[in-house]
Amino acid sequence: MPGRRSGGRAGNARRLAGSAIRQLPWRIPQNRDRPTEPIDAEALHRIHDGAMRILEEIGILFLNEEALRVLAEAGCDVDRESARVRMDRGFVMEQVAKAPESFTITPRNPAREVAVGGDAMLFVNVSSPPNAMDLDRGRRPGDRAAFQDLLKLTQYFNCVHLAGGYPVEPTDIHPSVRHLDALYDKLTLTDKVVHAYSLGPERVEDAMEMVRIAGGLSHAEFEARPRMYTNINSSSPLKHDWPMLDGAMRLARRGQPVIVTPFTLAGAMAPVTLAGALAQQTAEALAAIALLQCIRPGVPVAYGSFTSNVDMKSGAPAFGTPEYMRATQISGQLARFYKLPLRASNANAANAPDAQAAWESAFSLWACVSAKANVVYHAAGWLEGGLIASYEKFVMDCEMLQQIMHYMEPVPCTDADVAIEAIAEVGPRGHFFGATHTQARYEAAFYAPFLSDWRNYESWSASGAQQTPERANRIWKQILAEFEPPPLDPAVEEELRAFVERRKREGGAPTDF
Amino acid sequence: MPGRRSGGRAGNARRLAGSAIRQLPWRIPQNRDRPTEPIDAEALHRIHDGAMRILEEIGILFLNEEALRVLAEAGCDVDRESARVRMDRGFVMEQVAKAPESFTITPRNPAREVAVGGDAMLFVNVSSPPNAMDLDRGRRPGDRAAFQDLLKLTQYFNCVHLAGGYPVEPTDIHPSVRHLDALYDKLTLTDKVVHAYSLGPERVEDAMEMVRIAGGLSHAEFEARPRMYTNINSSSPLKHDWPMLDGAMRLARRGQPVIVTPFTLAGAMAPVTLAGALAQQTAEALAAIALLQCIRPGVPVAYGSFTSNVDMKSGAPAFGTPEYMRATQISGQLARFYKLPLRASNANAANAPDAQAAWESAFSLWACVSAKANVVYHAAGWLEGGLIASYEKFVMDCEMLQQIMHYMEPVPCTDADVAIEAIAEVGPRGHFFGATHTQARYEAAFYAPFLSDWRNYESWSASGAQQTPERANRIWKQILAEFEPPPLDPAVEEELRAFVERRKREGGAPTDF
User: Cis omega before residue A410 (within 30°)?
Assistant: First the structure.
């Protein structure tokens, strides 16, 4: 279905069929392969036991009064003065067991519903870089125009399943009202699942209200199932900050999912050993998950892995490294042990959309697939360890994501596929281009890339010798030029707009946290 | 062991320690992970059954009188006129069962001995491109200078285990004597396992004789164990050509290993379905392997997979695609079924050492690792579907190969690695940079790349904003400038030189086949 958009009108579909890129249709890839498991059951148990000892003996800081109250009531050992909570393993495992193994999230367009968990693998746009970059304008602070551009790419590509965090920070909007304009853009330029940053009560409540309005939902309908989600990071080592906990608890109370992703860079905020960093990652993640299960038993959560290593010379984070790959795969083993969905990332530390960016991303994606990650953050557009949202990298990543989606399709092996008759027909002196067996199948036989250039050197040179980023540059420009937003009931759009205006008049959210 | 070379003199080791890149020491990576197996036993058996039916019902052309004679004597159904051989599955499986599951190859420097099979994974330099390319001189026909440069890189990098085919074709040497100069360069500039092209009796016999001389071996010692190898390609569909069979039989007779790699591009020389292409690949490979086991029962062989797809618009071969990945993984299943070592490739179809080259290579390597390939051809330096040997890509590939070698090291998970004491010591308000646990481990904790640039954008820009190929360019120049060949007994070198001179005076090899 070249260029077709969910909900697109017939006229668009026709117009785009010839001009926009050919892309795969919307679908949720199913990762049916056995995962790669670097460590055995005994080693896995040693990391689990380490995590339990951290929770029991060392404790985690919960810098949030309400969280402390809830955990104290649940019987945890809470030191109010230091905000340190110790919880025993029986309690933690009991709470974690209440979380579902899988769940769905339904955005305003129900056709974009996603399943989180099991074999499903979801790709999320790049989230949260402060800078945007493209070949024409270079690296610059993110603004609302770049934010909207990257949202359009997020919406356009069927291989991007969620409109996660801000694809770039729109720094030209005042922080007090940024979330209002940003959510408005997200909910009008995309119809995919959106995310709310846990940055204080007003922002989180505004986001939930806007998602409810955009879906045309009553409050009861909003709470009846997951409609959006948040992702919180611990402040490693061993600390959950106030706004993250506040937002997570607000979403949990209304049945909305929370991904908990500790920021355990080995050698910096966590031990230099992967086993130690993963024990700490697990302790920090399960501590918050246990809290949320106390708040609302059964609320959907996911175990987030971000463990990687740092360059020990400079302290700079590294991604897509051998350590990142193994940490992600072992995180998969841990997630399955706790029966929780796994979040990981398509990460790299390159400063340009070049070969290093591509191999670090490919290695990250290899790790995500072989770990059976359910949610792949930063799947399209990340550069410079998350400090750059790159237009060209976005397009390049989507090429890789599509290839992985195709890779996950089963390989048919019927007798007709084994093709003895065709082999006999062609014989030892022919070729298969004209064979009946080929003619019946060639259009859909192979994955067709939109970005790779497979021509020979002479043809490629004659047409300008364009390298990958130049070709990606041409593609994003075409997509943006042709973009039309997904349909939205004008009354709903008006209600969203009115909400934004009212909340702006009220001053938005405080900016002094 | 930065910059240390096997057999290097102490003076060199010292000098290089500071100036050459830091690289991993020589070692054979052990791939202990479970393979990815895309199809179930029933589907695997259907491909096997298809291969057997091709051999039994359709037959394979053996364009070589001696091969036909051997197979007729062994009881196969041989049609002398068409050169078509049909062999029943009982015969094929009986012959294949004689081949060893694993074997070693010992080059002139015994410290460079390699194991083929089991968990061992070997990387071979790029082989056979007609063109060389680098950033300074662009793409140009291969010559002896480029050939020698690329051999020096092959020798330098410890992650390249075999000096396989010609890293680029030295087209400035007359074809009648090219093999003599090329083998002389290979045996003097490297001390790793070398390969002989099966391009007529004279070339193969010369190559065996030169390997024997370089190793200081008697004829009996040469034949006592594998000292070199050849790789033959079928002329798909369903055909083995004369020179390939001749060379393979000559090596087999003297106990030297043969890799059999059909050239089954799906949609062109093989069915458009992967199952069909793999059935044909298997039939073509096993047909030659059965012949070689008749020639010398137990001779080491390997099952070569090269199945990929073509661009159905242009017919151009594609590599590192989803189809290539699955074909390679299923080839791994087939190789294990037949208890044969597997050869695959690090392939791509890009025209420049850019992002596409990197992701196609990374996906190819992912396929090789998850297939448990034992021999990875073209592991360093391949571009343009094998038409270009790229200096910069060679260096980039070695960075990827080193990362994969590090990835294959076990992840330690002792109690000391889980690091509860360090986590308690650092607590929630510190960081791990200065912790005792970190200090004791940080130097060897993580893989240190020689090519990746992990600095932040500002530092990277200030130092020239070099993208990956530019950095690779600087590195290969440094390596070539500092290169010293591995030690070789002057008497042996003189004997090699005399052999080359004598064979040149005799006219070398015929060029009219």
Answer: no
Q: Are residues B140 and B231 in the same domain?
A: yes
Mutate to test the interface with B, among A359, A408, A437, A467 (most CBs of B within 10 A): A359
Note whether A365 and A440 are same-domain residues.
no
Chain A residues with beta carbon closer than 8 angstroms to that of B435: 271-272
Q: b/e string for B455-474 if b means 16 or more Cβ within 10 A? A: bebeebeeeeebbbbebbbe
Question: Are the Cβ atoms of B396 and A359 closer than 8 angstroms?
Answer: yes
In a domain, A476, yes or no: yes
Are A162 and A135 members of one domain? yes
Q: Which of A457, A459, A471, A475 to mutate to test the interface with B (most CBs of B within 10 A)?
A: A457
The helix or strand, by DSSP H or E, that contains position A443, with its residue range, turns out to be: helix A442-445
Say if residue A414 is exposed, middle or buried (CB neighbours under 10 Å; 0-12, 13-18, 19+).
exposed
A302 with A422, same domain: the answer is no
Residue ranges, chain A, pLDDT below 70: 1-20, 512-513
Question: What Cα–Cα distance (Å) separates residue A73 from each residue in A76, A84, A149, A285?
Answer: 7, 15, 47, 20
Question: Quick one: closest CA in A to B275, which residue?
Answer: A418
3-state secondary structure of B132: strand
How many beta carbons lie within 10 A of that of residue B126, not counting itself?
Answer: 30
Q: Is A109 inside a domain boundary?
A: yes
pLDDT digits (tens, 9 = 90+) for A286-299: 999 999 999 999 99
Whether B445 and A266 lie within 8 Å, measured CB to CB: yes
Contact B437 A314 (CB under 8 A): no
Q: Where is B382: in which H helix or E strand?
A: strand B382-383
- State the smallest CA–CA distance between residue A46 and chain B in angstroms: 7
Does pTM top 0.90 for this prediction? yes
Q: Which amino acid is at A328?
A: T
Euclidean distance between CA atoms B160 and B124, whole angstroms: 6
Cβ–Cβ under 8 Å, residues A268 and B433: yes
**How close B402 gets to chain A, by Cα (Å)?**
10
Does B276 sit within 8 Å of A418, measured CB to CB?
A: yes
B198-223 per-position pLDDT tens digit: 999 999 999 999 999 999 999 999 99
